[in-house]
Design brief:
The structure is a homodimer. By secondary structure, chain A is an alpha+beta fold. Chain A has seven helices and five strands, in the order ααααββααβββα. In chain A, a hairpin with a 4-residue loop joins strand 1 and strand 2. The C terminus of chain A is likely disordered.
């Protein structure tokens, strides 16, 4: 199946989808967060075909979410480490966590796992808010629009 | 390509991935948020093959993110409307938006689009926080663990 690429799309959701849209990618990133770093770690933790895993890791390195370092030369073996871009991806994963927790189980049931802060022992409950207000985002008050700077550039280009 | 299903996985991220993992799904949900409801709306807005779109819409209805209502009988035509579960998915999309905005462009550049509140005119900047603290989630202080209630169930089952 030919894959449509979204990595040149003007919308940030599309660019994130381009990375995320490989079925295994969020699961592989979850395991990287939880400490998996060598190929064998991912194989042990996930029921993923080796060829698929190799392709996904290569893509994540190419996209800069993971870095690759040789820990052995002959045969060559690599460790995969989270980059700053990879760490930032945690926000997407925890938003998926929250939504998956609330909607991924039959009513009245939920996941048997939880997120905790190991220092305080408190449960962590992710929520997406607007930085300005600190409040959850109201889906009925949300528009996507061209930035005014982009509009100016467009007008300028048209005038030239 | 055979698809691995994650919809019975104990992890909420995996259950969310199961829905999201279709490449087009987040983009189709974005357009549904922005007002697309009929098959033709999605075709007009997205460069998506019709067969792919039909399959993704069917899956989103099956998974309960969209509802399907006939607006014409002969030939049958449907409108797709966001459900409560679909609206809740907005949090995942805006987390993708934020990450895509920061990391999906070369350094020093960013998307030409922005999210705004049409009532106040203010830009909306999504951020994922911990409900308890209101602070961003620190990736170095995050563990996934079995809930103690689940542990008790496991112990009980082992004792029986």
């Amino acid at each position: 199946m030919k894959r449509t690429r979204f990595d040149r799309d003007p919308c940030p959701i599309a660019r994130a989808t381009d990375v995320m849209g490989d079925w295994w990618t969020p699961i592989i990133m979850r395991e990287a967060f939880l400490g998996a770093s060598r190929f064998g770690d991912f194989v042990d933790r996930l029921d993923v075909p080796r060829a698929t895993l190799a392709k996904r890791l290569e893509r994540l390195v190419e996209d800069g979410l993971l870095s690759q370092t040789a820990y052995q030369d002959n045969p060559p073996r690599y460790e995969y480490r989270m980059t700053e871009k990879g760490f930032a991806f945690l926000d997407v994963l925890v938003a998926m966590w929250r939504w998956g927790s609330e909607w991924g189980w039959p009513e009245g049931r939920g996941p048997a796992v939880e997120l905790v802060d190991p220092v305080t022992g408190n449960e962590i409950i992710p929520q997406v808010v607007d930085v300005r207000t600190g409040e959850p985002i109201d889906p009925t008050r949300l528009r996507m629009q061209l930035k005014s700077s982009a509009k100016r550039r467009t007008v300028k280009a048209a005038e030239e």
